[in-house]
Amino acid sequence: MALINITTWYLDYQGPTLALPVWPKDVCLIEAKIASPDLSQFLFCAVGNHWRWFSRLSWTYSQWHNYLTAGNVRTWVLYQQGTPAGFVELCSHPDQSVELKFFGLLPAFIGQGLGARLAVAAIALAQQWQASRVWVHTCSEDHPSALKTYQHAGFRINQTVTQDEEMPTDYLAAALSANFVHSRISHFDDKK
Prior knowledge:
Layout: E1 2-13, E2 27-31, H1 37-48, H2 61-68, E3 73-80, E4 83-92, E5 97-105, H3 114-128, E6 133-139, H4 146-153, E7 155-167, H5 171-174, H6 178-190
Parallel strand pairs: 5-6
Antiparallel strand pairs: 1-6, 1-7, 2-3, 3-4, 4-5
């Protein structure tokens, strides 16, 4: 692991109650109601690898499964013409707040105006989940427009933290998620 200096911004939503956006006719946002470590790990890597998301690269199949079945996580997948284009992951907390935990588009779908609509959808879905507070965090290693996108959607910075974080030294090797692949194979081999 290597230490890199990262600035993290914590933001609270300060805008009005939102309605779900209207999508182009070839786009839809669907909740993934069945906990699927395979789907969630795919979305995390497909969206996040381009921005070097690393927090879940070492997760095993069981870690993903336990996280997704804890009862406080919901995931929506954005599709364009039947192809996964992005996702929203919301996490409710004991204080009744809902965190926009992960949000993003696969690289091929960036620049089509879907990101701003997906941010509105994420806020509306969090509000529908009876959130007392909707919040998000992003960092200096994320998409260059992430902070601006959140602020444009109505989020306001309430805290900024700069600290050294551990990132895999060989990100490309870590991005292959060997722990997940090996543990997934073992999980299903054990069921035979």
